[in-house]
């Protein structure tokens, strides 16, 4: 099956409202030159305070803004209540989101998120009609001690536990080796492809071959305009979760353009 590529920008804790609006407008005007069929699925995950700002720009009036989907960077699994500082899936939806990133290594590392919490978030996101982008990845120490595959396999099994095959097939996974995030060191494309194939076999084990064939699995970690073509030409890499290079419209647009070139030549 041919899976539609995804290029997602994770803005992390960057860009004030006006800056966010201006980068978003830069991506939107680039996307206006293409049909939705030609473009990959383009997703942008701003900070919570910019969600309404960018969703106003991403209007559905036929101007091209609706070619960009909006994502949260995190959420809580409860729908409302006494959870100071948290945001629910319904609130994200209300602010214009159709995706939500969960389990990013920065959340696991700095905010002590566990596999169990990530699983609850995935279930809440799917129940609320949004699509989770579930992140996984190993530290340099884990890679050097040879436990990359077992670690990632257990992260994925835990995140997907108790979720139906149908819901898994529409979910998105992002493989982000922690040592490649924000370091300028991308994982070798063939190796990223090998790990992503391994993730696909884990999905097949827990949700069946059809779900494994449909689920889109992205690579993330120092993706740049100069790396994306080689990454996209791999058999199992379905797109990218981009950090630093998504903060400027020019570099993010170049990543989208280079992705389309690979799709056309494939
Ligand atoms: P960089 O592209 O800045 O390495 O960040 C990757 C990432 O963490 C995306 O979620």
Detailed description of the structure:
The structure is a single chain. This protein is an alpha/beta fold and 266 residues long. The chain has one domain: Alpha-Beta Barrel (TIM Barrel), CATH 3.20.20. It contains twelve helices and eight strands. The chain has helices spanning 17-31, 51-57, 89-94, 105-110, 115-127, 140-144, 148-160, 165-170, 189-207, 209-214, 228-232, 249-265; strands spanning 6-10, 41-45, 68-72, 97-102, 131-136, 172-175, 216-220, 239-242. It has an eight-stranded parallel β-barrel, surrounded by six helices. α11 links the parallel β7 (216-220) and β8. α1 packs parallel to α12 (249-265) and α5 packs across α7. The radius of gyration is 17 Å and the shape is globular. The two termini are 13 Å apart. The structure holds 1,3-dihydroxyacetonephosphate. 1,3-dihydroxyacetonephosphate binds at residues 10, 104, 176, 181-182, 220-223, 241-245.
Task: Label this structure with key terms.
266 residues; TIM Barrel; eight-stranded parallel barrel; 12 helices; binds 1,3-dihydroxyacetonephosphate
């Amino acid at each position: 099956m041919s899976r539609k590529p995804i290029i997602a920008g994770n803005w992390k804790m960057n860009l004030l409202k006006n800056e966010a609006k201006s980068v978003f407008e830069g991506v939107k005007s680039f996307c206006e030159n293409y049909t939705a069929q030609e473009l990959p699925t383009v997703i942008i995950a701003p900070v919570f305070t910019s969600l309404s700002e960018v969703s106003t720009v991403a209007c559905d009036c036929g101007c091209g803004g609706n070619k960009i989907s909006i994502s949260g960077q995190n959420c809580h699994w409860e729908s409302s209540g006494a959870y100071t500082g948290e945001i629910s899936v319904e609130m994200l939806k209300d602010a214009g989101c159709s995706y939500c990133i969960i389990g990013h290594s920065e959340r696991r590392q700095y905010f002590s998120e566990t596999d169990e919490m990530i699983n609850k978030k995935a279930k809440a996101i799917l129940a609320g009609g949004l699509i989770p982008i579930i992140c996984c990845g190993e530290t340099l120490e884990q890679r050097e001690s040879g436990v990359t595959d077992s670690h990632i396999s257990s992260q994925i099994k835990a995140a997907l536990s108790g979720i139906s095959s149908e819901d898994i097939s529409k979910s998105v996974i992002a493989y982000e080796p922690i040592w490649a995030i924000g370091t300028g060191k991308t994982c070798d494309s063939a190796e990223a492809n090998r790990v992503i194939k391994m993730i696909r076999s884990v999905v097949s084990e827990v949700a069946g071959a059809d779900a494994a064939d449909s689920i889109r699995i992205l690579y993330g970690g120092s993706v740049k305009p100069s790396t994306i073509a080689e990454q996209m030409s791999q058999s199992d890499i379905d797109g990218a979760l981009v950090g630093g290079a998504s903060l400027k419209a020019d570099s993010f647009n170049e990543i989208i353009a280079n992705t389309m070139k690979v799709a056309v030549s494939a």
